[in-house]
Specification:
- With 313 residues, this protein is of the alpha+beta class.
- The chain folds into two domains: 113 residues, Type I PLP-dependent aspartate aminotransferase-like (Major domain) (Aspartate Aminotransferase, domain 2, 3-Layer(aba) Sandwich); 192 residues, no CATH class.
- The protein is built from eight helices and 20 strands.
- The strands form four sheets. The chain has an eight-stranded antiparallel β-sheet with strand order 14-13-10-6-5-18-19-20.
- It is globular, with a radius of gyration of 18 Å.
Length: 313
């Protein structure tokens, strides 16, 4: 059961849903019960709340049916509560361009909702904006770890995700809930990163998976379950191998559980994604976006150490 305080935090703390507004819940047959709980709460908060249940999409970043995309253009506030992420889709982008305020909750569970949604969104916004301010003016970002990660990133013209800390209170605002990351699409990336915490579809990892990157693309993946990842990327095509995101976790309630929605928000982690980067203003429009979570990283931004072995300094 989703606790009332968690739902109140979403509609009042994050989305700032007003009585005169409309609200759409898009869910699927896997997450239907959670979607229905939020729908019942939304009906108490605004003049018109609707829910629509779809079949699960094939992969994170795959488009919903066209009739759903069309519906998303008509509502003020939207929660996309699905098994696979709709964050990195044209449907979501078009709806936010129309002014909708959207929160996506891919793979959310009752446990995640009850632990991680009821946070101080004002405090989270302050910390997220501080991280955004540091990153946006950077030239070079180096991420290392004792396990072997050593990556160089540059931001370029990327837009940022998560800088508002889950405060989706203005037209066109969007992000994940639970919130708690600041991320961008690198214009350049080179090196090696070891995903040691979790990966979408694989859950918790008992041994690291190594990704070798040259000129912004993954050119090699090795490790115990590497073939499973390679198969998923190959099913999409060569552009699935583009390095699409670097993100830094900031949610004080999140912990590593094997679910990427929460894992990538954990303080003391970073995550690197491959695939679709259109959310950040990029042009790699492929139906896939997969994040891998790295624990205890060290981050140096233009010779300034901001994290050492997973601890902000």
């Amino acid at each position: 059961m989703i606790k009332e305080n968690a739902m109140r935090a979403v509609f009042e703390g994050a989305m700032k849903l007003k009585r005169e507004e409309t609200c759409l819940i898009v869910t699927d047959t896997i997450k239907k019960d959670i979607g229905l709980a939020f729908y019942e709460y939304a009906k108490k908060c605004c003049k018109n709340a609707e829910i629509i249940i779809i079949e699960p999409t094939r992969e994170h970043g795959c488009e919903p049916p066209k009739n759903i995309s069309d519906m998303m253009l008509k509502y003020d506030v939207q929660l996309l509560i699905t098994e696979k992420s709709l964050t990195h889709t044209a449907a979501r982008r078009m709806a936010t361009l129309k002014g909708a305020r959207i929160a996506t909750m891919p793979s959310i569970t009752e446990d995640i909702a009850n632990r991680c949604l009821d946070v101080d969104y004002g405090d989270l916004k302050e910390k997220s904006n501080k991280m955004y301010t540091i990153l946006k003016s950077s030239g070079k970002i180096r991420v290392t770890s004792r396990k072997g990660t050593d990556m160089i990133f540059r931001i370029g013209e990327s837009k940022f995700f998560g800088k508002d800390g889950g405060s989706f209170d203005f037209p066109g605002s969007f992000g994940n809930l639970p919130e708690g990351e600041v991320s961008f699409a690198p214009s350049e990336s080179n090196g090696v990163y070891l995903v040691d915490a979790s990966f979408p579809g694989l859950g918790l990892l008992d041994s690291p998976i190594t990704f070798k990157v040259e000129n912004g693309r993954v050119i090699g993946i090795t490790g115990k379950r590497a073939e499973e990842i390679i198969s998923r990327l190959d099913a999409v095509g060569p552009d699935a191998y583009l390095v699409a995101e670097l993100g830094i976790g900031l949610n004080p309630s999140a912990k590593i559980i094997g679910n990427i929605l929460e894992d990538e928000k954990v303080i003391g982690t970073v995550h690197v994604a491959v695939g679709n980067n259109c959310t950040y203003g990029g042009k790699n429009d492929v139906p896939l976006h997969l994040d891998g979570v790295i624990t205890e990283p060290s981050i140096v931004i233009d010779d300034r150490i901001i994290m050492h072995d997973g601890v902000f300094v």
